[in-house]
Specification:
By secondary structure, the protein is of the alpha/beta class. It folds into two domains: 87 residues, Arc Repressor Mutant, subunit A; 238 residues, 3-Layer(aba) Sandwich (Rossmann fold), CATH 3.40.50.150. It contains 17 helices and twelve strands. The mean pLDDT is 95.
Length: 343
């Protein structure tokens, strides 16, 4: 008979091996609207199947699996209710991660992962080998997925947006630019807390497509300018602070340095560059969620970038005319604020 430690070890490995299947349960729940169907309390299998337009027997099987991985509970035979985690898969509502789940379980995101071993052996991104173009160029050919990606980035920003505006003194500035700011979720949070501050949202036309609506809904259209541009070519002038959230980790050191140099050229000598990204410890630590290390590998296979340690951020900064002044954790977001000044 296997020892208890052997059984626990086997269970750990089996759960990891079946992890990709668990992710597809999440994907199916999002696509079928299971969390929406369970909104409001207990529902029978028949009620969920009717709402989702699916057969009762297969719906029951999906609900059992969703319950087993923590997305639902079964208070009585054939009756299900959504858990707090499962509620995050509703299509709308505060804190929704439905678009995030949709994108990160999509075959476009996962195909390059099937060649992770090759990426580790060669150090080269495998997405382009699979699709013939770089990740962001491929998104341009799939408008629906691109829109979902933009929504996913917005959903992934909400926790940081709730923390950052109160964790740093933005009141010392007159104008802050969010470079690669997407739909403006983070910048809207900063401007909403600091009423005397003006903003510039700088991104490509595709990346900022939803920004006008987000800023208008927040009542900030008159305090924030949207500028279309490419951060590989320039950064917006006329500001005394810049934010880069989840930008540098998309790119290798050479291209990340190009972005930083453009920011340095546009910022006055007394300006501040604020990089919002995970900062990995020098050695793996329990305090850092495994998601950050998986994100690092996602950058490897899909984009060619990486998550970085403080030392690696300091090296990037030096190469672009900056010096890292401080690194401030932003719990519970998993991000840190890396403050850089002119060297």
């Amino acid at each position: 008979m296997a020892a208890p430690t052997d059984i626990a070890a086997r269970r750990t490995v089996l759960n990891l091996v079946f992890g990709s299947m668990s992710a597809q349960v999440v994907a199916a729940c999002v696509k079928l609207g299971v969390a929406d169907a369970l909104d409001g309390g207990e529902r029978t299998v028949e009620q969920v199947a009717g709402a989702c337009g699916t057969p009762t027997d297969t719906t029951h099987r999906l609900l059992r699996a969703a319950t087993a991985i923590g997305l639902a509970v079964e208070p009585g035979p054939g009756r299900f209710a959504v858990t707090e985690a499962g509620a995050l898969l509703r299509s709308t509502g505060a804190g929704s991660l439905s678009a995030f789940a949709r994108v990160f379980t999509d075959p476009v995101m996962l195909t390059a992962w099937h060649r992770l071993d090759e990426a580790v052996r060669t150090g080269r991104t495998t997405f382009e080998q699979a699709f013939g173009v770089e990740f962001f160029d491929h998104l341009k050919t799939e408008p629906e997925l691109a829109a979902a990606f933009n929504a996913a980035m917005s959903q992934g920003t909400h926790v940081a947006a709730a923390v950052l505006p109160g964790a740093y003194d933005f009141g010392r500035f007159t104008t802050v630019a969010d470079v690669g700011g997407g739909d403006g979720t983070l910048l809207a949070a900063i401007l909403g807390r600091h009423e005397n501050l003006r903003g510039v949202l700088f991104d490509t036309a595709e990346g900022s497509a939803q920004a006008a609506d987000v800023l208008a809904t927040a009542g900030l259209a008159d305090r924030c300018e949207i500028r279309a541009g490419d951060f590989f070519e320039s950064a917006p002038g006329g500001v005394d602070a810049m934010v880069l959230k989840s930008v540098l980790h998309d790119w290798d050191d050479e291209r990340a340095t190009t972005i930083l140099r453009n920011c340095r050229e546009a910022l006055p000598d007394g300006g501040r560059l604020l990089v919002v990204e995970p900062v990995l410890p020098e050695a793996v630590a329990d305090a850092v969620t495994p998601v950050m290390y998986l994100s690092d590998l996602n950058m490897l296979v899909n984009l060619g970038g990486q998550e970085r340690t403080r030392e690696e951020f300091e090296a990037l900064a030096r190469g672009a005319g900056f010096a890292v002044a401080d690194v401030v954790p932003l719990p519970p977001s998993g991000f840190c604020l890396v403050e850089a000044v002119a060297a």
